C-alpha cells in the first residue's frame, strides 16, 4: 500500500515502481517512447497547455516524480505539482527555411541525445510551427518508457483528441471481435453424445463430439510443443544463438547512439485489398510487406549499394544464403485488446490495465527474393499463425517479472539486453482512429510513434489512422544511412504485392 500524502481530494498516494518500470530505468534498457504528430493548422501552445491541464496531468504517472527511497533498494512514484512551462517546449524557428522536413528530422534526432530531467515528471512535448510536406506544424511527444507502454501512451494521446466532425465525441478505434473458442465445450458435448448413445439416440452427435474433442486435444498439444520449442530458442538466444551479421544489425552499444526517425504514409485500403483477397489479417499483410521491403533493401546493400536500380539489378540476387534474421515482435498481453480513453484505463475496475503490459517474441524474418510477391504474405501468415499457437509472449513476460523480483532489475535488464542484442530489429503495429481527429482542437494529419534506447539499430512500426497506414522507422544512422530508401522499399513492396493480387485475379482494383 502506498503512503498518503496529505488529505486533499483526490488523495495523492506514493506508489512503488512496477517490475517493468524498474527494468526500463536501468542503463542497458533506458527506453523512451516518442510520438510525432503532424497537424493541419498552426499549433497554439496555450491551447495545448490548457488541454494538458485537464487531461494528462490529472493522471498520477504524468504528475509524479521518480525518487529513490531514502532507505535504499527501491524507487517510487511521488506526486508533485506540474509546471507546464517546464514540459511544453516551443522553440523559435525560421518559417521560411529551405529544408523544413530535414530540420524536423534533425531536431528529433537531437532530442534523442538528451535525457529527461528526473526533477520533473518524465515527459515533455516539443511544438514546431514549421510547414513541412505533410503538415502545417509538428508536435513531438516524448515519454520515458517506465511511465507506460505504447498502448498506454496511445490512450493518453486519444484522451486529448476528439473527432473533427464531432468535437464532443471520442475517436472510434476499430476493434476486431474475437470469436469465442468452442474448445472448452468440446468435452461436455462429447459426454452428452455418450449419454445419448447409451439411450439409443444421437450416434452422429457422439461422433461429432469426439472429432471436436480430438481437435481440441491436438490444439493443446500444438501449443505445448510450440511453447517448449520457443522457450528453448529463447534460452539459446540468451546464451549463444545470434543473428547473422548483416547491414541492419547494430554495433555493440547501439542503444547509446542518437536515433533518426523517418516515416512514410501508404494506403490502408491497399492493405485491406490484399487482406480480403487472401483471407488474412492486416497483421499478416504488413509483416509480409516488411519481409519484402527488407529483402529488397538488403539485396541492394549486399550488392553495390547504389540507390539507383535498373531491371537487371532488381532481379540479381546478392543476398547471402542461410541468413538468420529475427525481429523482436512486440505483443500486448492485456486481457482486453481495446484502446480505451485514458481516464477509463486508470479506473481500478477497468479491464485494460495501465502501465507496461507488453512482452516480445522472437520472430524469424525470411530474407529472400521471391518470384511471386504474394509468397511474402503467405510466409508471414504461416509464421504468425504458429506464434499464435504458443505461450512464448506470456512466458517471457512472467519470467522477466520474476527475475526482477528475485534478482533485481539489473539482472533482468542484462538478460533482456542480451536477447535483443542477438536479434536484428524490433517490430510492432498499432490500430489508430478510423476518423479524422483533432488534438486539442488541431486537426491531425498523421501520427508516427516509435521507441529508442534499446539495443536495436532498426525499429519498424506500423500505425493506422483513417484510411492511411504510417510506416515509422527509428534507426541508428550508422547502420541504416539511408532510412528514406528503406521506407521507399517498404512502400514499393506493398505496391508490388497489391499489383500481384490484382494480376492473379484474386482481387479487384477499387475504382
Structure classification: alpha+beta
pLDDT averaged residue by residue: 85
- How large, in whole angstroms, is the Cα Rg? 25 Å
The outline comes out as: globular
Proportion in β-strands: 15-25%
Number of helices: 14
Taking the alpha carbons of the first and last residues, their distance comes to 60 Å
Describe this structure in words.
The chain has 511 residues and is an alpha+beta fold. The chain is built from 14 helices and 16 strands. A seven-stranded mixed β-sheet has the order 5-6-7-2-14-13-8, with helices on one face. The protein has a six-stranded mixed β-sheet with strand order 9-16-15-12-10-11. A hairpin with a 2-residue loop joins strand 13 (437-439) and strand 14 (442-452). The longest helix is centred in the middle third of the chain and has 37 residues, at 203-239. The model is unreliable at 1-11, 179-184 and 194-199 (pLDDT under 50).
Describe the protein's topology.
Blueprint: E1 15-16, H1 19-23, E2 32-39, H2 45-54, E3 64-68, E4 75-79, E5 88-89, H3 100-111, E6 123-128, E7 137-144, H4 150-159, E8 161-163, H5 183-198, H6 203-239, E9 260-267, H7 268-278, H8 282-302, H9 311-315, E10 326-332, H10 342-345, E11 358-364, H11 374-388, H12 392-407, H13 409-421, E12 425-430, E13 437-439, E14 442-452, E15 458-465, E16 468-475, H14 483-503
Helix pairs in contact: 5-6, 6-13, 7-8, 7-14, 8-11, 8-14, 12-13
